Amino acid sequence: MNYASYLTYVTQALQSVKPQEVQGTIDLLWRAYQKGSTVFVIGNGGSAATASHLAQDLAKGTRRTLSQKKRIRALALTDSVPCLTAYGNDDGYAVVFEQQLRNHARPGDVLIAISGSGNSPNIIKALTWAKRNGLATLGLTGFGGGKLRRLAQHKLHVPLNDMCTAESVHSVLLHYIVLALVERIHGKVVWH
After folding, report:
1. pTM for this prediction
2. Mind listing the pLDDT tens digit for each residue in 71-80?
């Protein structure tokens, strides 16, 4: 595949995402901001990097000044190596996110679960716990969406059977969503 073909491929993948799912994600995060809810983000591998990046963009990228009081409360549960390794070693990797949610989450918070396949056991366990305990849930998926797409209350699905490009599209969509939130919070988009 040459570069021009890849650009076409990525553009088609972006265009395959349902606009109402993108808007639903913006609205979900806007409500979390308004209520002061915490947004937790989880994922494995490349999706863990996306989770970390999204949490940073939500927490820092949506503020304009160092003294801004009202902010989006966002935390990636992928970022504490001691927590991940302690839970993974002592209790099994399938509970590394669920156990952190049990420590930190409250009803009304939001869980964004990112999984290309939609079938990662630790993602499904965390999402199932979150739903049972009053969190709003968003599944960010690729391929057919797997269990995550079926279980999540809100969906942002890239119908593409290619993990690398699905992850790239997730990143592009999430950057757009952050810019849309900046516009809602501050009344204008500030490109940075």
Report:
1. 0.95
2. 999 999 999 9
